[in-house]
Amino acid sequence: MSNINYGDFMKTSDFFYELPENLIAQTPVEPRNSSRLMVLHKSDGSIEHRIFRDLGDYLNEGDCLILNDTRVIPARIYGVKKDTGAVVEFLLVAQKENNIWECLCKPGKRAKIGTEFIFGEGKLIGEIVDIDDDEGNRFVQFTCDGNIFAVLDEIGAMPLPPYIKEKLQDKERYQTVYSRELGSAAAPTAGLHFTPEMLEEIRSMGVNIGYVTLHVGLGTFRPVKVDDVTKHKMHTEHYVVPQETADLINQTKANGKRVISVGTTSCRTLESVASKYGEMRADEDDTSIFIYPGYDFKCIDALITNFHLPESTLIMLVSAFAGFDNIMNAYNTAVAEKYRFFSFGDSMMIED
Q: Distance between CA 90 and CA 73 in Å, rounded?
């Protein structure tokens, strides 16, 4: 039983744990599936220590894995202010319309409405057309010859989280091997552990694989700044659930098998649709669903995920799924066992 009474005010500080800095993974492991795998059984809180390539031991014929096929944009670019030559860092957060993007800018005071910036020696031009008064984000109208994604691929850098200080040698290591839908500002990191060969082995076991798309925004790293968890305002992200995936999930449920979400992004997508309709359907929409202890899960039966930041919305989500005490014990065990944490870190599977 949890020591949190969900009817009472739940504090952000309840989700804090001590993490030595040397356990924050700075580089991905090779091969991808050689990361460690903690298996947490939520029914009794018991823990097993395995390697990610052993995942098949915990999958059954007829289960389905749901993967997020979003692809990260090399969204960090540096612009030169047209009139002064001052350099400003831009981080593209979300595409709006007509090549207008919401961006984070540093230093923001140099990016006023009407200011023009030159990127990649003229390969891309940007003009500030609006400013979000609440967040301070800029809306930038970009122009270029050809496809903006091709230009970003040429001049942009991967928008690695702020806790990763090492330079990424291979941009593809911050992409899943099944990424295909461009649009994310951060990787759905639970999927980084899969190799193409491992996915084929899983299919050969009779486990089905389905895809959703949720474009991950930088809000995923935004700290919870309120004491009362329930007062936190969640960021909005865009998702797509294809008909094929909705059918697969419904068939899996009808057969009494498990829907296993790979990552919190897939989880939030599936739970958004199930909460919206009371069942799984094909859908495309924006979601700002915030899952924290007390939430009643409507779709997923098991979850594969990484280890998340203290006091983050993601540790709140996994606490909702596995139970608060189970998660805090698992995280403290992971620290004691020197697991690697966060985006390039080790993995956890939560099941009954």
A: 13
By three-state DSSP, how is residue 53 classified?
helix
Q: How far apart are alpha carbons 253 and 280 in whole angstroms?
A: 10
Determine how many CB atoms are found less than 10 A away from the CB of residue 251.
Answer: 13
CB atoms under 10 Å from CB of 249, counted, come to: 25
What residues pair up with 124 in beta bridges, in sequence order? 119
At residue 117, φ and ψ (nearest 5 deg) are: -130, 145
Residue 78, phi then psi, degrees to nearest 5: -115, 125
What gap in Å lies between CA 268 and CA 252, rounded to an integer?
Answer: 19
Q: Which residues contact 288 (CB under 8 A, 6 or more apart)?
A: 233, 234, 235, 236, 237
Centre a 10 Å sphere on the Cβ of residue 330 and count the other Cβ atoms it contains.
24
pLDDT digit string, tens, across residues 242-301? 999 999 999 999 999 999 999 999 999 999 999 999 999 999 999 999 999 999 999 999
Could you list the beta-strand ranges (E) of the chain.
Answer: 36-41, 47-51, 64-68, 70-72, 76-81, 87-95, 100-106, 116-119, 124-131, 138-143, 181-184, 208-214, 237-241, 259-262, 283-287, 302-306, 347-351
